[in-house]
Specification:
The chain is about 50% helix and about 0% strand. By secondary structure, the protein is mainly α. The protein has a domain at about 1-75: Cyclin-like (Cyclin A, domain 1), CATH 1.10.472.10. The protein is globular. The termini are far apart.
Length: about 120
């Protein structure tokens, strides 16, 4: 599981333009492994933890990128090759409110739809 998230972190780093440096990508992997040395993979979403580690690593290695680029890259690598539709777009997936568990209240905040600049 950890190895697949590290590969995903590399893919996201390459999908962001301009590309994230190799040092920042490797720092993100170290951050990810440090987090899951004390946390369980079942308690946290490894995908979101991986993208967060990449974001923090970019900030610590002076490879500054806006968070929007990370979200776009994550959505870009999670597309179905046959239909070209996003499998799990960030903020639009199944969460506990959509499954009927939140007593019908909805999410605590609304996530705005993010569109690339044209």
């Amino acid at each position: 599981m950890r190895k697949s998230v590290c590969r995903m972190t590399e893919e996201i780093g390459q999908a962001i333009r301009p590309r994230v440096t190799v040092v920042a990508t490797n720092t993100a992997k170290v951050f990810f492994h440090r987090v899951f040395m004390v946390q369980s993979l079942t308690r946290q979403d490894p995908k979101m933890a991986g993208i967060t580690c990449l974001f923090v690593a970019c900030k610590s290695e002076e490879c500054l990128r806006p968070i929007r680029q990370f979200i776009w890259a994550l959505n870009a690598i999670e597309t179905d090759p046959k239909t070209k539709k996003q499998l799990f777009p960030f903020g639009m997936g199944k969460n506990r409110w959509e499954r009927g568990r939140g007593r019908g209240r909805g999410p605590p905040h609304s996530i705005p739809e993010i569109r690339p600049c044209s």
